[in-house]
């Protein structure tokens, strides 16, 4: 994945010497991501029941397997930092459960859009943050949040379905916008609750403009991904 320059308001000194405060913030960042992987795994299992055929079910299962692989990687990392993985999940899972509750798909195509958009949003978040992440955690976060090949099947199915039935375009476009809005809202909740994580990622935790610029960049990439689905 290419490295994008950090957006305005984001610190650009990822090579600064480690300090206890930053180490604590990294641990919390990993803990948040761990809870996200936990929630994503179980949600994919639930949503896989809508799969119309065996190949589609296998594709979703592969995405779920990827999520649990990421979970194991993060669990190892936070355990090495003296953090209990189960406790970390328990602390942060509510925000992810709330996100998935308000974005529960009603159709198989909504499942696919959510899978593709969710995978893409994680990758876009990482692209925006890679320039500011501490060197010792950059590879871990990149592996966990980088876009996976597993979600490409979703793009192919949705694109083909929209081309065959243009009436799908409008409701799925609205669905994609809702997914983005809810993802940004819930990410902002985490940032508001964990000032150390915000300080790690932004040069000035009180700079709302810096955070807004960050989310604007993510939204722009989201628009590109929606266009890839035929929903632009």
Total strands: 0
Helicity level: over 70%
The domain count comes to 1
Judging from the principal axes of the Cα atoms, what is the shape?
A: globular
Sheet with the most strands? Answer: none
- The CATH superfamily appears as Ferritin, core subunit, four-helix bundle
Radius of gyration: 18 Å
Mean pLDDT: 83
Q: Spell the H/E element sequence.
A: HHHHHHHHH
Strand proportion: under 5%
Q: How does CATH name the architecture?
A: Up-down Bundle
Task: Describe the model.
The chain has 232 residues and is an all-alpha fold. The chain has a single domain (20-228), classed as Ferritin, core subunit, four-helix bundle (Ferritin, Up-down Bundle), CATH 1.20.1260.10. Helix content is 74%, strand content 0%. The protein has 9 helices and no strands. It has helices at residues 20-47, 54-80, 85-102, 108-129, 135-145, 152-164, 169-193, 195-201, 208-228. α1 packs across α8 (195-201), α4 crosses α6 and α4 crosses α9. The longest helix has 28 residues, at 20-47. 38% of the residues are buried. Mean pLDDT is 83; it is low at 1-18.
């Amino acid at each position: 994945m290419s490295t994008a320059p950090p957006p305005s308001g984001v610190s650009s000194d990822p090579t600064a010497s480690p300090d206890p405060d930053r180490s604590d913030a990294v641990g919390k960042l990993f803990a948040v991501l761990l809870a996200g992987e936990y929630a994503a795994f179980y949600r994919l299992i639930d949503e896989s029941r809508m799969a119309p055929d065996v190949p589609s079910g296998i594709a979703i299962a592969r995405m779920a397997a990827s999520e649990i692989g990421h979970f194991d990687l993060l669990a190892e990392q936070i355990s090495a930092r003296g953090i209990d993985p189960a406790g970390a999940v328990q602390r942060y899972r509510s925000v992810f459960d709330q996100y998935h509750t308000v974005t529960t798909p009603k159709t198989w195509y909504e499942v696919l859009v959510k899978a593709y958009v969710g995978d893409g949003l994680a990758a876009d978040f990482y692209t925006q943050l890679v320039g500011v992440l501490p060197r010792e955690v950059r590879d871990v976060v990149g592996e966990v949040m980088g876009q996976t090949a597993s979600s490409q099947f979703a793009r192919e199915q949705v694109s083909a379905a929209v081309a065959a039935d243009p009436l799908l375009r409008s409701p799925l476009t609205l669905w994609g916008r809702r997914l983005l809005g809810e993802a940004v809202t819930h990410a902002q909740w985490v940032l508001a609750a964990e000032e150390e994580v915000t300080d790690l990622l932004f040069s000035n935790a009180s700079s709302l403009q810096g955070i807004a610029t960050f989310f604007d960049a993510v939204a722009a990439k989201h628009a590109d991904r929606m266009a890839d689905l035929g929903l632009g």
